[in-house]
Amino acid sequence: MRRLRHRVPWPAWTPLGVAGVLAGTLLAAPAPARAAATAAGAVLDPAHSSVSWQSPVYAKGTGGGPEKCPDAATDPGGTVCHRFDLTVSVPDGYWDDNPEGGVPLSIGWERPADDFDLYVYDDRGKQVASSAGTADPEATVIPRASGTYHVLVVPYAVHDNSFTGTAYLPATTDAGDLTSFSGGAGSYTIGAGRLTARADFLKGGQLRLQADPSGSLSDPAGTAIVRRRPALQRHTSSFDAGDYYGIRSPEAVLRVYKKPLRFGLYRPDNRTRIWQEDKPLRWSTGGMRQSLTRGADEQFFGGGEQNGSFSHRGRTMYVANSFDWNEGGYNNSQPFYLSSAGYGVFRNTFAPGVYTFGAPVTTGQQERRLDAYYFLGDAKQVIGKYTALVGRPFMPPVYGLEPGDSDCYLHNANRGERHTLDALKIADGYAEHRMPLGWMLVNDGYGCGYENLEQTVKGLQDRHAQLGLWTEDGIDKLADQVRAGQRVAKLDVAWVGNGYKFALDACDAAKRGIEDNSDARGFVWLPVSWAGAQRCGVLWSGDQKLSWDYIRWQIPTYAGATMSGIAYNTGDVGSIYRHDARMYARDLQWKAFLPAIMTMDGWATDLTTGKPADQQPWRDGEPYTSINRKYLQLKERLLPYMYTLSAQAARTGVGAVRPLWLEYPDDPGTLGAQAKYEFLSGPDFLVAPVYEDADTRDGIYLPKGTWTDYWTGRTYQGPTTVNGYHAPLDTLPLFVREGAIVPMWPEGTTSWQTRDRHELDWDLYPAARGTGHYTLYEDDGVTRDFTKGAAATQRVSMRGDARGTTVTVGASRGDYAGKVDARTYRFTVHGGTAPARVLLDGRPLPRSAWSYDAGTRVTTVRTPSLPLDRGFTLRLAGPERNRTGTAAGS
User: Fold this and answer.
1) Dmax of the chain from CA atoms?
2) What pLDDT score does 842 carry?
3) Nearest to 680, CA basis, from 695, 665, 697
4) Contact 753, 491 (CB under 8 A)
5) Quick one: which H or E segment has residue 460?
6) What secondary structure does DSSP assign to 502-529, as a single string?
7) CB atoms < 10 A from the CB of 542, how many?
8) What is the SS3 assignment for 870?
9) Could you tell me which of 81, 90, 78, 77 has the C-alpha nearest to residue 48?
10) Range list of β-strands (E), 45-133
11) How far apart are CA 109 and CA 31, in angstroms?
12) Secondary structure (DSSP) of 716-762
C-alpha cells in the first residue's frame, strides 16, 4: 500500500510544507544575536534573531506520526518524542512584505538513513506547519509567526540518533540606487551596491532576469529543469531616458529605473505596460521577492496543480509540497504563473515559494536570489514557450489513454492472501463486462512484491492490457522488469521524496528506463513533482477519501494544471479509501473526458456498510454497471480525438483539459463561480459534472456560440447560464461546440488492439453558415517511431450554407506500421432537416446508405470502403429551391 505516514492532514494555508530543498537556504541563519535555548524552549525577537537546540538521543523510532507520542505529562524527558516551545515576539506589520513570510524552522541529523518528522502547533493546539517527508533536514515555515508555538518532533525511523533544531527571524533589505549599467548584444549587467543583476534577452520573445545580493550570479538548478537554454536575441539596443535606462528588443522594452533600482517590461512602443515593479527587489536571510503593480482586470493562472482552483486573482498561491492530497493542497505545484496582461514567468529554482496575487502582486522563493524567465504572448503562446523551456508534455502510448486498474495482489493484508496471477481474473472481468482496460498495476513496493512476472505479462497482453508496477524506494530493477514486459511505472512518495530535484530526476529516470530497455514509450505516474514533470509523467493528485466535495474540487484542479503545461493530471476514480456506488458513477463519467484515469482497488470500504469494497466499475451491479460501461466505452470511442489532442500537446504544450477562459479569454463569465466547476475537453466538449447528490445541475455556463446537448440534440445560444438541467445518474451534462468535427472509433470498441481499423466514424456539428477544420493525427500508438516521422495526418473541413452541408475529407498523408490502405466512414451530422440527397464525390449514395432521425435531427451516412491515399467530398443537399426561395413542389 502507499506509505501512510505521508498523508498528514496539513492545513491548506501552511505555506512551505515538506522542504528538504530548503537546506542551504533556510539554514543560513545569522550568527549574531542567538537566543539562549533551554530544554523547554526559547524566544525569537528583534534582540534574538536565531536559535538552535539539541535533542536527546533516541534509541528507536515510533514508526508513526503524532498519534504515537504520549502527552507531555507522561513523557516529561522527551524520551519518546521531543517537545520545544518557541515564542516569537515581533512588532506589528513585521511580516508584511517579508519574502519568507514567517519563521523558518528546521531539524537536521547526522545519519541520512534515519528520519525525524516535524510538527508545529499554536497555543490553541491547532497545527500550523509540518514537515513529515523523507528529507534530511526536515524544514518548514511558521506563517506570520507571533506568539508561542509548540514544536513536536517525532523520531519516525531512528537508531540511536539525535537532531539539531534551528529557527530564525528573517531580516530584510531592499535594493538601493543603480550604481552601474553596461552590456549589449542581448545581455546587460546591472549593479546596485552589493546587488548584481543581469538581463538576457532570448530568442522567441523571452527574457531572463537574474539578481543576487552576494555580488555574483549562481544557478543551483543547473540543467535539471531547463535542459537547453534559448539563444540570446542579439538584436537589442539601450538608451538613457533620464529616470531609467531602456533596453529595446524586437518584442519588448525593459526599463531599468535608477532611483531606486526597479524593473519594468513594456511592449515595443515603450508605453504599454506588460509588468512593472512598484517597489525594488527585497531579500531576506533566505528569500527574495518581486513586487509588481496589478492591473485593474488582470487575471492570474498557473502554479502547477493547485487543488481546488484554476484562477488566482486575490489569492495566495503556494509553490511547495504539502503532502495534503485534498482541497488546498499543492503537491504538484510549479514555480510558474501566467497573466492575462500577456506574459508568464518561471522561477528557475528548486526552492519553494509564495505568490500573492493581490495589489500589489508579490512573488518570492525561499532562496536569496532571483532567477526568472519571462515569456510574452497570449496564454497559449506563454504555455508553449514555458514548456519549450522545461519540457513539452510527453506523447503517451495509446493504451495509456485507456483506463488503468491498480491493486496489490501478493501479500495483501486488506484482501487476504492472493497471487500476482490473480490480476488476470480482474482483466477477465473487464472483458466479460465489455469495459476497456489498457493497463494494470499489479504490485506495491510497500510489502507486496510480485511473482510470476513473465506469465503475468503474457496473460495481460493476451487480454489486450499492459503490465505496470509501482515502487516504494527506487527503480534499480526497472531495466530487468521492462525487458520482461513492464510498460507502466508508478513512483510513490518515498521514491519521489527528499527534495523536488529528486522527484524530477525520478520521473526522468523512470521514463528513460522504459525507453532504454524496449521500443515502447515511457509511461510514468507520480504524486509529487516539480516544474518539468510534464515531459515525463502523469501527475496524480494523491490519496483521497470519497465525498461529493472530492468530486467538486478536482474539476478546477485538473483544468487549472493545463495552464502550467501539465497535460496529464488526474485522481483515482472514486478515490482510494471509500466507496459509494452513486458517487463512483458520477466521478467516473466526467473523468472519462480526462486523458488518463485509474481505479485504485484494494483499500476502500463502503460508506454505508463499512465493509471492504473493491473499485472495479462493475462491482456495484445494475444500474451502475451499465452506466459505467456507457462512459468507458464512450471514452474508448473518443480515443482518436483524445490521441490527436495528445499529439497537439506534445507540439504546443497545451493539454486537452482546459478551463473555459483558455478558449474564451474575452468572456468574463468564464472566470465566474459557475464556470469554475466545468471544463472543456479539447476545444469541442464542454463538461459540467454533477458534484452533489442530485438529478439536476444548475449554473452551467455556456460561452458565446451555439452549443448542442450531446444526449438530446437540443441547442443553446451562448453566452447563457443553464439552470435545472435534467441529469439523472446516467447523464453527464455534456455539450458540443458548433463547428466541432470529432473522430471516433466504431461503436462497441473496447480496445485499441481489437478495434476495426477499417472503419472510422466522424461526429459532425456543422454551423448553419461557416467553415470548420480538423486534422486527425495517427501513428502506431506504442513505439517511438513517430519521433522519426512515422505518422499520418488527415484533414477534414466542413462548410454549411443555405443549401446543405459539405464535408471534404483529405487524403491521409504519411505512413506508419499497421496503417491500412482503405476504410469505410460513418458520419453522424447533427442539426438541420432531412437532406433530399446525399452525394459522394458528386454521385448520389443509395437511400440505404443513409438515414435521418427526426427526434435527434441527426443524419447518419455510411460510405463504402475508400482508399486513404485519395480524398473525397460528401454533400448533404437540401431540397432544390425555385427562384422565389421556396422548395420546389411546395
Assistant:
1) 102
2) 97
3) 665
4) no
5) helix 453-462
6) HHHHHHHHHHHHHHHTSSBPP-EEESS-
7) 23
8) coil
9) 90
10) 50-54, 82-88, 102-109, 115-121, 127-131
11) 20
12) EEEEEEE-SEE--TT---EEEETT-EEEEPPTT---TTTS-TTEEEE
**What is the H or E stretch that residue 687 is in?**
strand 685-687
Chain position carrying cell 487549472: 560
Q: Mean pLDDT, consecutive 10-residue segments, the chain of 890 residues? A: 33 30 36 64 93 94 91 90 96 90 92 89 92 78 94 94 95 96 98 97 96 94 93 97 98 98 98 98 95 97 96 94 84 96 96 93 94 98 98 98 94 79 97 98 85 96 97 87 96 72 92 98 94 96 93 98 98 96 98 97 92 95 98 98 98 98 97 95 98 97 98 97 98 98 98 98 93 97 98 97 94 98 98 94 97 95 98 90 40
Question: What local confidence, expressed as pLDDT, does residue 703 receive?
Answer: 98
* Cα–Cα distance, 820 to 812 (Å, whole number): 10
Please report the pLDDT score of residue 883 as a whole number: 38
CA distance 79 to 561: 44
d(CA 578, CA 551): 13
Residue with cell 519568507: 100
Q: Which residues of 507-539 are buried (b: 16+ CB within 10 A; e: fewer)?
A: bbbbbebbeebbebbbbbbbbbbbbbbbbbbbb
The single residue listed with the C-alpha cell 530544554 is 39
pLDDT given at position 861: 98
Task: Specify whether the CB–CB gap between 124 and 103 falls below 8 A.
Answer: no
- Provide the grid cell at 770: 461557416
Residue 627 amino acid letter: I
Which residues does 38 contact at the CB level (< 8 Å), separation at least 6? none
Count of alpha carbons within 13 Å of 19, Cβ hemisphere only? 31
Single-letter code of the amino acid located at 502: F
Q: Spell out the residues 6+ positions from residue 863 whose beta carbon is closer than 8 angstroms to its own.
A: 824, 825, 826, 827, 840, 845, 849, 872, 874
* pLDDT value of position 491: 92
Which helix (H) or strand (E) is 840 found in, with range?
A: strand 837-840
Instruction: Give the residue among 693, 696, 722, 680 at the shortest CA–CA distance from 310.
Output: 680
Q: Where are the alpha helices (DSSP H) in 517-580?
A: 548-561
**How far is Cα of residue 745 from the mean position of the Cα atoms in its chain?**
27
